[in-house]
Amino acid sequence: MKWVKEIFGRLWAVWAIIIFMITMIIFLIPVAIFCMPLEEPKRTHRFILYSRIWMAVYLRLILCPLTVRGKENFAPGQNYIVVCNHNALMDVPVSSPAIPGGNKTIAKAELAKTPIFGIIYKMGSVLVDRKNDKSRKESYMKMRKVLEMGLHMCIYPEGTRNKSNEPLKAFHDGAFRLAIDTRKAIIPGVIFNTKKVMPHDKSFYLLPHPLRIDFLKPIEVGESDTVETLRDKAFRVMWEHYGGMERWRDGSGNYCV
Predict the structure, then answer these.
(1) Strand, helix or coil at 171?
(2) pTM of the predicted model, to two decimals?
(3) Do 151 and 126 contact (CB within 8 A), yes or no?
(4) pLDDT single digits (tens) 133-184
(5) Which of these, 238, 230, 218, lies nearest to 78 by C-alpha position?
(6) CA separation for the pair 101, 141 (Å, rounded)
(7) Contact yes or no for 84/191 (Cβ under 8 A)
(8) What number of other Cβ atoms are within 10 A of residue 101's Cβ?
(9) Which of 33, 117, 118, 219 could form a disulfide with 186 if both were Cys (CB 3.0 to 4.6 A apart)?
């Protein structure tokens, strides 16, 4: 019956794209009227509020409802560097609306060129061209500005999608250098099941499955901390959070909860 699943996964991907386009066009109306005229950071706060509603509707319509745990770890009046694992394109619509309060996500500059979607993409992101040294330096300064405005900054320290069978791959230093420079605490966000919804070894394929993100306790920046110690702390607590869950591997080798 494997062929049935293959056909269904591609048909469901068509359904997901159609629903995404319809809901995106509807979403653009209040964004254009009530978000774009505002100055930052009010623009981002309102944009995330609308995004949260949009994604709640969209994910339910494609039968991928999202459960968010650990929002109490965000102290009122504080902003954080949020680091999330990265398994699939689905991670951004899961993490950004789930983070309590206004936030921006580090994102690839190429997708900003997409018609219509690019407008939304740019509004919620700090764009970076990873192949361009100047772009990387500029994006770092923009992330600092995001934090200075009182917004959260969401970063995927694995850099690119984790295509291995392990929960995490090695972290890059950027998020942790930002924490050292700004003295902002780090909140790890562990995303479950996006790899099952969008397997990395299949193109144009999507399966319905409940999603979840767990926000863990903040990692404060200590006086003796370095980029390396912060990076290792975040990696360890995120890895152990996977290990502490009841888990199993499905037929494709993915971790499921």
Answers:
(1) coil
(2) 0.92
(3) no
(4) 898 899 999 999 999 999 999 999 999 999 988 889 999 999 999 999 999 9
(5) 218
(6) 21
(7) yes
(8) 19
(9) 219
